[in-house]
Amino acid sequence: MIRSLLVCSLALFVPGCLLGGVRVEQIATSTQKPANVAVYVSVSKGDAPATGLTEKDFHILEDGTELSPEQTTQALLPRDEAAVHRALLLVDMSGPVTEGDTRHQIALATAQFVTRAHLNEPVTVYAFDGGASIRFIADFQQGTDEIGALPQLESYSQTDSSSNLNSAIIESLTQLDARMMTTQKPLRIGSLIVFARGPDLAGRVADSKMIEAIDESKDLLFAISIKDVPGFRANRVGRTGAFEAESPVSLLHAFDEAGMTVGNLVTGYYLLSYCSPARAGKRNVRVRVVTTDAEGKEMSGSTSTEIDASGFTAGCDATQKPRFVVPSPHVDAKPESGSDDAKPAEPASATKEKPSKPGTKGAPAAGDDEGDAVVPPPAKPGYAQ
Fold it and tell me: Structure pTM?
């Protein structure tokens, strides 16, 4: 049996979980002339991503007045027009992994994770042991191919039998951000998944420094571990979600569950575009999602933002590619891999600009006469501040 210790089960909906309802969270908003407005949102239904939503499920209100879809010509655009989603899996190869069976088991579990996760986003795999730096294993582009094996892990040879976990996590965060920076998209949403078989033993980086790096990161953070491993708490690293195998034998199932969760997260993001009828001044824009639960009962949630309609005119095309302007994070490393768009890099530090910490978003607004949960913009990857 695998215990999945998730914060509301899903990464992008961590703060203020709304179990049993609909949560709509604003990631970024774009406005451009003649009168284009676009909002990138994440939507959860209960404790899972709300998949398969269509234009009719989205309702747009400006200053409290619901706008007609015919008037606004609202449309859902492909998410990759604005955002890049990417995952990095960090695999613990420290300690006693000299036996072929152990390496084989970890390699199979890793391949299963990639098979699940890369359906909706590219996945990079790194490994670590007691050595000073993490080691690149492979890059996998988004696709439907089943990954049967990872020979790089099957034949993995340790440089040091200790565990350099803390340093590996910090370096992985830097490599993940560096990879996302190679794609010219204004919104970047990364997921780091750490498989750890025990605590840091090398002591190159203090626990406090590793936790500080996690707190400063805007990436989604998951952990995979084995139950009752001394000295390691998966939920301390996996602030977004943690997956715990009952024993080493059930690792494959834990990686499978983690891969499905990480891959499915992407399907809960939507890029909503519309033509605003406003022609001057600031407007409060509310995006409301109305859908049904498994029993057909209506459920809804919403989020609000403000736009400036100064200079808006006629001639808007809602299918026009939006222009999101979001400051890019400072990244000290270039991607280290064998991919065409990345060059090998020296081991990098994890110094970056300090963003807002996750989990600071307010609770659902009280007194909402429609029963929606109105959520302010959270501090998440690529979110406009």
Answer: 0.81
